[in-house]
User: Fold these one by one.
Assistant:
Number 1:
Amino acid sequence: MIWPIIVIAFQLFTAASASPLPTPSGTPITETNKNNIWYLANCVSGSMIAYYDDLVLSQHGEAPAKGNFYPVSGGSGQLLGGAVTWEAHQFFTTPPDPKRLNVSINDRVWAKDQARAEAGHGTDGSGNWQCYQDTQRILWTLGGATGMSGDLSNGNCTAQYFCLRLGRGLPPLKT
């Protein structure tokens, strides 16, 4: 009588252990999403949060795809031109959409020699993200795209921070 119960338990165990283990964010890292990346950028006329499906598409001055860049909301510390002080504040993308990112950067001093240092965290509709300091490299420049948040023809946009899926390793440093 116990034998059928043991067989069923073994079948359930093997079926459950055959699936990939989720990352700490609860979203499995797959070939399709492992290179997703968010950037917190300061542009000539203000700050933006930009999403790229593949971090490779953000390494040579490419603008984010149409509809994947957002003005920031929340936080404080507006600087000249509308840029924000990212540190010690929480921000979120506007307008809300399924990819809406809520992000908090720790109370820290931004220093160029701290590139790739852990700096904060974020969440969106697909899970949790770990944020790191970038190098202030030019992420995109005049004109690259038009999306739901308006025209990107607002001058150079420099990468202040980037966020990767929690559990994904760091990519090579781009200066």
Note: The chain has one helix and eleven strands.
Number 2:
Amino acid sequence: MATLFLVGGCSDEPEAKRPGPAGPTASSDQPTRTPATQSPGLDLPGNAQILVAETTGNKDQELPEFTSEEGAYTVYAVCEGKGKVSILNRNSSNAHPVACGGVPTVGVIYADKKAQHLKIQVVGDTSVWKIAVISGNHQS
């Protein structure tokens, strides 16, 4: 059983100064693994073991299966746009929202050392999201 804790940050930046959402950059169903869109970057720890490389998209997407050998993993996510973006474990219906507006969402998930299956869900208007997953607890 996995437990998901996500924290969205705050920004005192006025809406007018925030970058606008980027449009899709590819028609493929495969996620983009490079920062090909204009969504904000993720501030990943330099020494972290990457479980899912930075992945960018603008619609529902299943992430690659991964296993953390540390009993926990940290999810870094950000989105731009007016839609609602959530992270789901494919074995659960509990959606965990990602804060849009360029404010990073970081969450630590404590899970058994077995394969994990996450999915990004986009509802409503267009949103461009970016996510990465690293091994261990890197939130503190």
Note: Confidence is low (pLDDT under 50) at residues 1-39.
Number 3:
Amino acid sequence: MFSRNNTQALMDANFSEAQHTFILREYRKFDSSGIVKQKAAATREHNVKKAETKHQKRQVLVDKRNTLAAHAAGVKIVTDIATLKEHSKAQLEDQLAAHHQFN
């Protein structure tokens, strides 16, 4: 029970049998109140919500990336400098995204 952090050796060295019995009795009272189980349940619930939030954020990023990739896939790549000079800023950004898709 206490092997992970060598607590049993500490208790054997520093506590009398009466103190050890008292500690175990108090822990049993504490444990029977359900506080430990409530805390564990709250921690599990928090971890599940945190994982769901993380998954939702990741899904938003994936959807955005897929949308941008689909848009870039529909852009015709222009290599003529004269034609590129006539493009607007948005059209140039589309061209850049289309070129980055192949890298």
Note: The chain is about 80% helix and 0% strand.
Number 4:
Amino acid sequence: MNYPAFTVTVSREDTLWVAVVTDGLERGYVGADDFENFADIDPGMREIIADLTGIQPSQFTVSWRYEFGEEDETALVLEYQEAHRIAEDMAEWRDRVRSRLVSDLSKKLSQRAVADLLGLSHQRVNQLSHDPVPEFSLALPAVDELADALRRSLGMDREGFLKAIAQLNSFAASSNQNQEEVASSACRR
């Protein structure tokens, strides 16, 4: 399903964030507002677009542009936002793993030993041992998103990155096969 798309350009004037719909509105409509806090821009502009168009925010997409000092800083701002989101996901995953580890090890080791293992104070381990243990999985969260962030940080296009990963996997598989063959022939001797 194709949703209507709007482009919003964000800039800074004096002490306010200024956001203007620069593409997508019908001729004669202007969507703009000032915001004191950056976090208010996204929901505020989605509400303005919805009011002007009669379209629910879940039924349209917004592309963001960030221009500061007459320069387009969009790529860098979006990269930071993605890195920040991934870091939050990783911190949440770490916290779930740590809670589960504290829960499991508290039955087997002293709080001081668990604290030493985790690099925490024994008081923090005591706090964690009384918290509910969240759902847990050993799977790394958002692996595709992490791989995409790595690809972008290396400056590679998606196709080139996937080829490089395929070559790396092929090399690893042949290396493992060679090691198994050497081990197998050594055992037969």
Note: Residues 74-105 form the longest helix (32 residues).
